[in-house]
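Q: what sequence does this backbone want?
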């Protein structure tokens, strides 16, 4: 009788536990459904303009602004792309953007990773203070340093007709040097790489030093292969920013042969009074390289951001 009574006494408690578990499952399911719904709506908001841009690039102007809008082209064709590439200097703009973006990306990967290795794995007086000063520069808007950078580039000695004192010519203005070198190193790149390198065990580096490896060899053959996710993330960030940059090339360049693709598209709009069909084709072409780079390094990019964010 005692056993039966104890079982009967536990039955309501068990029922309450089952009810609470079901309620928690329902609340969890409702929360996930709400999150997925918000993500779905957000994805539509972000993707819809890009989809419409691709659709518009395959249509004539008359079909492009038809109401209601047609998300699927009635008679798709590549005439807009052909006409866009027939415009003067478009190929030159594309090559300039590719050259500048690849050069800046390569330089940033090298300079940022090398400085990050110093801040993360080397010990010297004032290291932390110097790193904090480097991070402090991230809080300075680029517009504040625009005029000083312009003056410095104009007075580079022995370039652009300048003498030894940096006067008499244009220096690095209107040149590839002015487009590439000022962006060759960033505080953000140093911070991103340094945070990732902090996760590499020091014992691994100490073992290499015991075997007689130099610091640069440790950096090149041990640290860099382990930092591929962070390098991929930094490379995507840098390439996307430089490829889409409009303001700095507008300030630095004055000749047509040095215009980049975003700047060339802006001039194309001014000259052709907004030829929407050709502009949409040019916008799609401008977006494709960044999309290809992201898809190629997506796995490393996500891993690099995830691991860096935990440190």
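A:
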């Amino acid at each position: 009788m005692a056993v039966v009574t104890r079982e009967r006494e536990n039955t309501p408690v068990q029922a309450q536990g089952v009810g609470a578990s079901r309620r928690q499952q329902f609340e969890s399911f409702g929360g996930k459904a709400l999150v997925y719904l918000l993500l779905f709506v957000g994805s539509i908001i972000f993707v819809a303009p890009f989809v419409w841009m691709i659709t518009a690039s395959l249509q004539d102007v008359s079909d492009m602004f038809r109401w209601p809008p047609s998300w699927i082209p009635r008679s798709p064709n590549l005439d807009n792309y052909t006409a866009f590439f027939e415009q003067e200097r478009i190929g030159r703009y594309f090559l300039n953007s590719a050259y500048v973006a690849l050069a800046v990306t390569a330089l940033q990967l090298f300079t940022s990773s090398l400085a990050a290795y110093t801040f993360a794995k080397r010990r010297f007086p004032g290291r932390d203070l110097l790193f904090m000063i480097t991070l402090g520069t991230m809080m300075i808007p680029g517009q504040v340093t625009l005029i000083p950078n312009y003056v410095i580039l104009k007075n580079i000695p022995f370039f652009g007709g300048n003498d030894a004192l940096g006067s008499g010519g244009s220096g690095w203005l209107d040149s590839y040097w002015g487009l590439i070198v000022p962006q060759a190193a960033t505080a953000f790149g140093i911070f991103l790489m340094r945070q990732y390198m902090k996760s590499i065990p020091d014992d691994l580096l100490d073992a290499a030093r015991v075997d007689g490896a130099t610091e640069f060899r440790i950096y090149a053959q041990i640290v860099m292969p382990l930092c591929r996710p962070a390098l991929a993330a930094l490379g995507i960030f840098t390439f996307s920013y430089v490829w889409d940059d409009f303001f700095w090339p507008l300030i630095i360049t004055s000749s047509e042969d040095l215009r980049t693709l975003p700047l060339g598209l802006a001039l194309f709009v001014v000259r052709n009074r907004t030829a929407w069909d050709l502009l949409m084709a040019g916008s799609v072409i401008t977006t494709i390289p960044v999309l290809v780079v992201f898809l190629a390094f997506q796995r490393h990019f996500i891993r690099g951001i995830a691991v860096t964010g935990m440190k």
